[in-house]
Amino acid sequence: EVQLVESGGTLVQPGGSLRLSCAASGFTFTTYWMAWVRQAPGKGLEWVANMKGVGSEKYYVGSVEGRFTISRDNARNLLYLQMNTLRADDTAVYFCAREATLTPYNFDYWGQGTLVTVSS
Amino acid sequence: QSALAQPASVSGSPGQSIIISCSGSGSDIGTYNRVSWYQHHPGKAPKLMIYEVIKRPSGVSNRFSASKSGRTASLTISGLQAEDEADYYCCSYVPGGPYAFGTGTKVTVL
């Protein structure tokens, strides 16, 4: 059974840093692109970043480029999102999602999310 | 990338059919057959309902169907059930994006 479990969300002050983790199980982690998607309070979903299964190919939405870094530890089946210089508008539930491999450009499994609150 | 436009809410009685629209542009929905739909019960993990415009993943009820015409994709829920009450999001591949999500539609079962 595919499982994605996010952790690391908490209250952080503006300008602060935070690292989110996503523990993956039930599938061959290295085969899949993985992504972070967020949902601000009362808002819709927004793709944040994604990363290829093997190698360093990665992409970001413009609003986080230069502040957030996506990475993965394939030996431990972990996906990370390092978030620096956090702003109030980064407040959101952050979801880890697996990108389908045979039929790309959709997310076939998601975690339940972890809440990041940026506030003083 | 701009969000795709969806109605904020759609409602229907049990057993009825409803349609949720998702409007994009010529550079996303209008060009690529990479439209997916997600069901999200708040506090839970979103669930893939439709991919590549019309395809249903294994395990998704055949009460869910979808289509595309020009720059607009649509999700139809037939035989509406209480468990279908949730938020629904469309998503399209966007060159340079690579993803644009819809604004989301809250489905209410009356």
Quick overview:
The complex is a heterodimer of chains A (120) and B (110). Chain A is an all-beta fold and 120 residues long.
Structural overview:
- The complex is a heterodimer of chains A (120) and B (110).
- With 120 residues, chain A is mostly beta strands.
- Chain A contains no helices and eleven strands.
- In chain A, strand 7 (68-73) and strand 8 form a beta hairpin.
- In chain A, 39% of the residues are buried.
- In chain B, the strands form two sheets. In chain B, strands 1, 3, 4, 7, 8 and 9 form a six-stranded mixed sheet that branches. Chain B has a three-stranded antiparallel sheet with strand order 2-6-5, with no helix packed on it.
- The mean pLDDT of chain B is 95.
- Chain B is mainly beta and 110 residues long.
- The radius of gyration of chain B is 13 Å and the shape is globular.
- Chain B has no helices and nine strands.
- Chain B has strands at 9-12, 18-23, 35-40, 47-50, 64-69, 72-77, 86-93, 99-101, 105-109.
Helix content of chain B: under 10%
What sort of overall outline of chain A do the alpha carbons produce when their principal axes are compared? globular
Largest sheet of chain B: 6 strands, mixed
Q: Separation of termini of chain A?
A: 40 Å
Helical proportion of chain A, percent range: under 10%
Structural class of chain B: mainly beta
End-to-end gap of chain B: 34 Å
Enumerate how many helices of chain A there are, as a single number.
Answer: 0
Find the count of extended strands of chain A (DSSP E, 2+ residues): 11
Radius of gyration of chain B: 13 Å
As a percent range, the share of strand residues of chain B is 35-45%
**Weakly predicted, low-confidence segments of chain A:** none
> How do the helices and strands follow one another from N- to C-terminus of chain A?
EEEEEEEEEEE
Q: Could you give the count of β-strands of chain B?
A: 9
Q: Would you list the SSEs of chain B in sequence order as H and E?
A: EEEEEEEEE
The mean pLDDT of chain A is: 96
Structural class of chain A: mainly beta
Largest sheet of chain A: 7 strands, mixed
